[in-house]
Predict the 3D structure of the following.
Amino acid sequence: MANSNVPSLDEILCTDAQDLVSKFDASNAAMEEEPSADEEETVAEGFCVECKDQQAQVFCEQCQEDFCEVCAGMIHRTGRRKQHVLKKLDTPEPAKDVDAAEMSSEDPVADLEDMGAMDVTFSAHSGKVETAEGAFGAWIVERAKYIPLRLTLKERKYLRLLEAALNVSEYTDKIDVLMYGNKTKRMVGQIKELCAILSGLVLASDYKAGQTLFEDRQFADNAEFYQKIFEIGRRHKIMNPDRMRSEYGKLMYVLQDAQLREVQDLLEFNTCSPIKTVYAVLESVHALHILEDEMVAVATREIVNRGKTRSQVQLEIKQKERAIEYLSKAYATPECPGELIRQCLYSIGDNHAFLRFNRDPCDRMLEYLQANFRPQSAESNSLSLAILHGRDGARLSHSHTNQFHYVQQTLTLWREILHDMFMLWYNADSDMLKSRNTYRLQDTGQGLQRVQPCPQVSRAAHAILHRTQKAVGRWVGSSMIHLGDRNVPNALVFIDKYNQVSSILNPVVRVLEFLDSLESSDANANSAASFVKTAFGTIDQARKLILADFFRSAFDGSGADNFFDAGSCIDGRLTSAWNWCSSIEKKPFFNIFLLSGFVGFNGGPEGFS
């Protein structure tokens, strides 16, 4: 629709210019005095005056306004507003004659009331375990010491260059071999070659940045750059254990050799710098107090949709976004900008995501163990957990009761190790790169390996083991932790072994959840459910057969050439589990795995297509 205040062509040609300008200015002033639609916007009755899209739940007597719990918590956290009196409002009951599906899609607020999602408070969060109420601040401050900082966009570009350089490097092929000659000179030559490749890649990707590396043509003058790019690779691997599978080991061996005194004397610079953690970064800008804010729990929680409605999930997402926005603005300073606070919060959130993917499968398997088996006696011979040395490859002999406790304590130990994996990895990095902690090249039966003591990892692992033993009460089997010997040559191998726990348990959990979904579906309409019932009698029977076989054969001490390499020691338990995975295609229930989309214990996301 055309604007009536705009002059026509005849008026422009025939009217005096000064009169025309005066008339046009007067019409514009009249338009400006009229209130716009945005200015006239009012909050719907019963909704929060701050966000305008959530139902009001509290009334502030001093502000004389209605708020939802989220906005009320943010607005009344500091200053004089903290003393304001908030009273809960009586929320109206949702209409009873409305269809539930329509309520969920058309009136999400009413749906949230029914489902109790409005009770979600700032103290609720994922990833926090076994901490007393109000102790989250102290817990996260301590944990932040080992949480790596998420990479920035620029750092990710450098990461790609590092991966490319490591991919073409033949460092371990030329160093970890038994041959005559000066090994130190070979190390220095290979390290300089890797640095030269990196410099060339930087120059090819960013000419200006690359020019600075070639101005003096001395590696020692660019030590800070090499330290930075190598630290990026180490930090990225900790946050993403499934990445850099071959490149990371090569990187750590390069840095391990670069720490030797004789190598540094020839190299003339140090290649290592400490890993950037959330704690170290916030401490450097005097902002550690941010972690003590209870809203950090909401800003970093892992949102899981299992057992929740769509409206509940959306509410939690909105709460998380608002908490991040609040913290990044409330604590921002010239020293600590809001973007840095966001990066730290996202890094803590990454830690919770790591726990959900790696630690939570242990919790799920413990639940299945306790729900489907009794420690006192077996339901039937086919569902007995008892194992006998020499039968079906077992190296241990346990009664049903002993095996139940053996499996329970092993899963609990794996859970505790994965819960503290970032701390263990931080210590492993220190053990590997300590200049005085030398290694020796030794044939361990799996080729030449770098055998190196692991004092920090050993101390931390024994502390976790002791804590687990106290928690479970009864301990079955050996308490031996192999570290720095032919079974687990160094800290890098130890970390790699326990990073495989999720690769073993996640596919099994997915298959069991697939059976749970079949149980709730109509067998006549679902061909997969019909197949399982025809082959195994009931879906519950199929589930118990899978669990019984896993709890027997994956924890029977098998998988090695002798008792000392497998058996019931701490590391041998994991060896037995991998041995079970290698024979999965021979199991009578393998077709159920295939029906659920399983492709392998190391293929695709969580082993599924």
